[in-house]
Here is the input.
Amino acid sequence: MIATLSACGGGSSSSSAADAQAAAAAQAAAAAEAAEDASEPVTYAGKVIDGYISGATVCLDINNNFLCDPDEPSALSGAGGSYEFSFDGTVPAGTQILADTPIGAVDEDLGPIEKPYNLMAPSDNPAVVTPLTTLVSQEVLSSGNELSSEEAEEAVKVSLGFSEETSLLDNDFVENEEAELQAVAEVVAVALAVTKETIEDSELAEGLTPAEVTKAAVATVKNSVSTLVANGTATVTKDEAAAATATVVSGQVQNIVTSTKSGDGEVVSLVDAFIAGDTVIVYEGEYLALDKNKNGVWDEAEEPVEFYDTLALELLYFPDAAEGSLVDVDDDLKIGILDYDNGEWLRSFDPYAGNNKLLVDNVWTDENEASSGGKLEKNCITFYVSSDTPTQSYCFVRKDLSGLTVNEAIPGICLNDDGSAVAGCDVNAELPSGSYVYDLTISTPENAYGGNYELYGGDWDGYVGDGGEQTIDGFIAAHSDLRTSYVGENCNIAFRVGSYDADSGTGVMQWGDNSVPGGCSGGFDFEAAGEESLEETNFEIVTFGDTKIFKTLTPKLYRANNGAEEPYIIFAATTNTSGDDVIFQGRYTPSNTKLSLPFNGNTEDAVFASRVAVDFLFVQAGIPAFPYELFIED
Here is the structure.
């Protein structure tokens, strides 16, 4: 610049300064205009739909409290479910559109609303607010706002079996005449209304505010919707959905209240907690072998595998954990079982650990041999079968129970099985600082197989009888021509191959309910059952290298009879623990499938918690202290 001014003799310096000042003024004016434009209100407009709903209050739930507050922008939906409002402030990440649908609102397809309920949609996709977008919004919230609305939509679609082409966001399924989606929306809306009513009417929920009731209802339906929807279709009628929802929710109100009172939680790093062994899993009932002679090893002849209907505690202790690095997670699970007879905890051994097989490099490989360990990244631990092939990811959202009473944290812990009070247990005692619990989401990451293929291992002789060919072709032959096998608990589902086209590698499976009278010796009669009582699913043969896999959508019967979540059932040939080639059942979980396991205070489900919380509650309930020294060296 100095050289340029000298060459010009300095004569233009004053005009250059003036020009610079003018340019600066112009830039300032442009910036001011841009700022003014940036602060212009943003318009949110769309439709509230089950059928088109008029008379719903729609708002931008800026503080995420499941309530349309007076200071939040809102509008009343009109004809065609239309709504519109504007907002000129900052919208926090994870903000949702909330539609409060009261008694007196009108569904243009179904008539006046008789039971109030609430719908949601991500604020960055406001065009429609429906029962389906409500599931997407809750998926975002359950992740601690870690998921985008598009990622959450994909997770809901995969979990409920919708096709990749199906749109849940920005989809006016009424205008588009998508009858199956509308049927799904109707049963989800019924579940939302019945869940809200059931919680409101329960004495156990008297401490919840109206906003907390709404929050509880939406979360409960999201976590149980797979009982109403499977393979992208409604599995029940609206009346059946109402009856089933009322029955299930009425038996879970206390757990729902506890989950709601524990708050939204936050995403925090797990590294320090796993290094210190400060996180545990508590649950009830397990098939294990106890270290009865306390020598630290499993003496199989003296310590048989039994089902122990008692408390189990698993310690998540990974002293070599580091952010972003694989941890060598060995098969020596750190589990203790409470021996009620002797009033002590005993180390236990899982005889089935490693029996399952994973598809690795196109070959079925024992689970333990396949595992490369787990990688900790912030609030998630992702397990790999090679350094670049993830199989499952477990993500934790931490909730702080510090200051809650014993009865608020774990309802019923101060009661014995017969209903009598546990001596010395104080229901009003407050949990100490550091009392954390966790909501857990299990997801399947992207990998080369488009998901996770897993076979349930063991020592049995598989699904093809003596003399049959233990291959996929042999499996199909063995289950054609009206021949039958069984899957599910106590063989509660019968199946056979209805048809098969060898050229295309596709066919149809037929499934029948074998639960009543049922049993593995039930001898289900497909012909007597009649076509109207059977369920059919399409299957295909997929091939990876030399490995053939029979894959079919999980039938609704299987889901209903077993409380199952897996989207696909598979069959494939592998070796059992005796080294024999057999056909085993397994599952295929597509990438982006997510399973939510929220904290609800019920040890019949798994409770993920800090040692501080568990140790305090054990003292209150008169349960012996857990011997962490069995697994953690000083």
About this structure: Confidence is low (pLDDT under 50) at residues 1-24, 28-38. The longest strand covers residues 279-290. The CA atoms of residues 214 and 514 lie 39 Å apart. Residues 13-38 form the longest helix (26 residues).
